[in-house]
Every structure is written in structure tokens, then in C-alpha cells.
Amino acid sequence: MPPVIECRNLTHYYGDKPALQDVSWMLRPGRICGLLGRNGAGKTTTINILNSFLTPRSGRCLLLGEDSHQLTPRTKARIGYLIEGHIQYGFFNIRQIERFYSRFYPNWTPAIYYHLMSKLDITPRQRIATMSCGQRSQVALGLILAQNPDLIIFDDYSMGLDPGYRRLFIEVIRDYADDGKRSILLTSHIIQDLENLIDDCVIYQRGRVLLDMEADRFRNGFRKYAFATTPAVADAHDDARHIHVERGEKHSALYGFLDERAARDELAARGIPAPDLRPEPITLEDTFIALTGKY
Ligand SMILES: Nc1ncnc2c1ncn2[C@@H]1O[C@H](COP(=O)(O)OP(=O)(O)OP(=O)(O)O)[C@@H](O)[C@H]1O
């Protein structure tokens, strides 16, 4: 099966400042992919190329096999985007906007929309402009899901959502992709939300792909080992091998795709004694911070 999204050697500059440098990755059909990275890493630039707001300096993106800047109407109808700003038509209420949108989409499925709306604490006549930020996001989500797209791209869906709405959003997305036929790309800084959602992750760092792998390999393979700090311990970051040593006051840590034996060998090779080395549990967010840095 051909990829649903394919970014090929994307390079983009704003003036003479590089934002993306030779970035390549793909989203396979039926998968949920998290595009992650610290502030300014290049995620929105990529999304803007995908939705053809931006033309890259070089390289290209294919969406459902077509160039992202030359999508046919048929292919456009198979893609839903949730980008900042959500809904422009704030003067409608939820019923009016549903009727308005329904005319543009051949596969429109109102039940998906109204199911989600039934979970919101709003009155039927309430205008979208008077709803809270989180409620407007849910309306936007409902309007996208009702289009029944094969591919949905969410840029920073979590902005302004409280934990309850974030949870609802995640559950709705998971259910939507449950049949394994729809594909989803999302960006978010709330890494813990993605822990049990994403199948794949692509992590950017300063406009380059730092890591691109199945989330299970990432979740299960990346480990943290703690050991007592001694004078021999110094901070060290080997981005190419994804190995990091963090010196703490009393306890230090080694992070990497390493089993315990490889962790001992790694420290020994660095001249760091660690007789008390022990594995410690690690979350997806810890992993992200270990790989991309705290500051
Ligand atoms: N219109 C622009 N003009 C100049 N520089 C820009 C412009 N848009 C983005 N940049 C710069 O390009 C780099 C990548 O920005 P981008 O918005 O793609 O990052 P991001 O990963 O989406 O960040 P965030 O998580 O903070 O939204 C940043 O250094 C940013 O300052």
C-alpha cells in the first residue's frame, strides 16, 4: 500500500534562516503518527507545506499519492485539516453550521457530529462565537469527522483544551481510526496524551528528523538507568546514537536504546563507574525530553 503522506527531502528557509533541512518521512495507511518536536522545530512549517500554504525551497510532499500543491478535488475531499483558528463562521449555531458544511462534502455523516455535540454543555441556539475555546474545538472536530475523511491532519489540537476535553478529543480520534482504514497525523506538545494513541512518531530537532520509528519500539526500547553521581560523571549528548548522560547532584541518569548490559558497557567506555546502576520507569514525555533536551 502506498504511503498516505510522503515528505521527500523538504528544505525550507524563512529569509536566510533554515526551518527545514532535507526532511523525509512517511505516514503509512491506517496509522496514527505524532509529529513531535520542541518549539520552533519545524512542525507547523511542514503542516503548511502539506496544506499548500507554503511552497518549500526544495523537496515535495505527496498526499494520497498527489503533490500537496496540486491536489485534485477528489483527493481534497478525502483529507480533513484542523488548524489554528478552527471555525470562521461564529455567527452560526451548531445546527446551522452542520447544515452549511453538509453541502460541501459527498460523504457527510451528521451522526458523528451530533454524537460529539451531545457531549457539550451548550444550548441548541447558542452561537459558536459565544462558546468556550474547548467547545469550539469540539465543534471543529465534529465538522471534520463528519466529512468522513481518509486522512486527518491536526496541528496542535490541544491548544486551549482542559484535561477533560483533551481526553474526549483523544478518545474520539482513537475511535475514528479504530477500523484501521483512516490515517491521522497530529502535532502536540502534550506528550502524555499521545502515550496510548500514536502508532508512529517522527521527532524533529532544529528542522531535521531526529528520530522516526514505531511508537512501540520507542516506548519499549528507550530506557533510563539511574546511578550515583561521582566526579567522573559529565553531561553528554550523542544525538546520532540517541544516548544521553545527565549529571545530577546525587543521582545521574543514562538514557538510550540500551539494555542493561549495553548501558553498563556504555558507561564503562566513558570511564564512569556505576556499580549501583538500575533501570527506572520512563514515560513518553521523559523520553521526549531526554532526546530533545530540557531547554
Ligand atoms: N513566517 C516566518 N518568518 C520567519 N521565521 C519563521 C516564520 N515562521 C516560522 N519561522 C521560524 O521557523 C522555525 C520553525 O517554525 P515552526 O513554526 O515551523 O516550528 P514549530 O515546530 O511548529 O514550533 P511550535 O511548536 O512553537 O509551534 C522557527 O525558528 C520559527 O521562528
Automatic annotation (TrEMBL):
InterPro entries xrefs: AAA+_ATPase, ABC_transporter-like_ATP-bd, P-loop_NTPase
Domain of life assignment: Bacteria
Keywords linked to the UniProt accession: ATP-binding, Nucleotide-binding
Gene3D superfamilies: P-loop containing nucleotide triphosphate hydrolases
GO MF term (any one): ATP hydrolysis activity
Record PROSITE patterns: ABC_TRANSPORTER_2
Signal peptide (from-to): none
A Pfam match: ABC_tran
Stretches assigned to the ABC transporter domain: 5-231
PANTHER family reported for this sequence: ABC TRANSPORTER ATP-BINDING PROTEIN YTRB, SKFA PEPTIDE EXPORT ATP-BINDING PROTEIN SKFE
Full protein name: ABC transporter ATP-binding protein
Organism name: Termitidicoccus mucosus
